[in-house]
Amino acid sequence: MKHILLIATGGTIASAEDGNGLSPALTGEELARSVPEIEGLCELDIVQPMNIDSTNMRPADWLRIAEVIRENYDAHDGFVVLHGTDTMSYTASAMSFMLENLAKPVVFTGSQIPIGVLRTDGRENLITAIEIAGAHIGGRPEVPEVSLYFQNRLFRANRTTKRSAEALSAFRSYNYPPLAEVGVSIAYNLPAILHPTEISPELRIATHLADGIEVIKLFPGLGENILRAMLSAPGLRAVVLETFGAGNAPTDDRFIRILKEAIDRGIIILNITQCGGGKVSMELYETGLRLQEIGVLCGHDMTTEAAVTKLMYVLGLDLPDDRTRALLRRPLRGEFTA
What we know:
By secondary structure, the protein is α/β, with parallel strands linked by helices. Helix content is 27%, strand content 21%. Strand 9 and strand 10 form a beta hairpin. Helix 2 crosses helix 3 and helix 3 (88-98) runs parallel beside helix 8.
């Protein structure tokens, strides 16, 4: 039997009604007792670094989760992180960057319905996530990367986004295929799974995440004064610019000039598409080429969640500007397809 660490952080799966709406109430131990079938799957240890609604999750909490995994890395074969759905893709994406030489499974999951409700989706999600975290083939972990399991599909964590507040299939990976599909058996998509280039017995983790990140979503009629104000915020270091279609933005000279002034001040602007599926191709249209010419970086098919957390991670390394931009231009954990 594999030795799995369950990291409980709260979320809907642990929530109960207290007269003021749902809020996290159950501990990790109580959650595990709600699913006694787990005992036949693995040897389970449980830690609870926090018990919060995921809307209250912050980068400092991500650092705590990463530290828990580092402290328990040698003693466990895999890890399952129970997390609220609202910001799960942000936390899971961040973890994919922060766990720098990961060679074991880290599976995020949760539920749309609390574990104490009869129709909960939490039981199946938890059981299967644990099974995936312990799955080995040829003596090696089946999925040695950070992933997200929900409603019969396992996704690469940094390719996911929450697509529905109500459907049990709450998450999608629009630009990358599932790592596994779950029916009567678990069918792993082996060519899609990321394997480490180096296997080290000691896990390295990021210990600092940068702030000063901003997301700007373009829309017709975005005022120049508003845009200039957003790009002039004190402490701003990088912007995720959500553009139209294949990475397109207005070609108005004043709009372009405002962006260029920000880039000239050292602000990084990373271009991703507002579309759920597809990628940025700035050389395709004049409206994208103008951005490329002034130094806007291409985000390819990254999600907003991956773009934000990658910027936090890379800027947190405090590297020279040219090395920072080089890291942003290439995939570090399979977060985009070049």
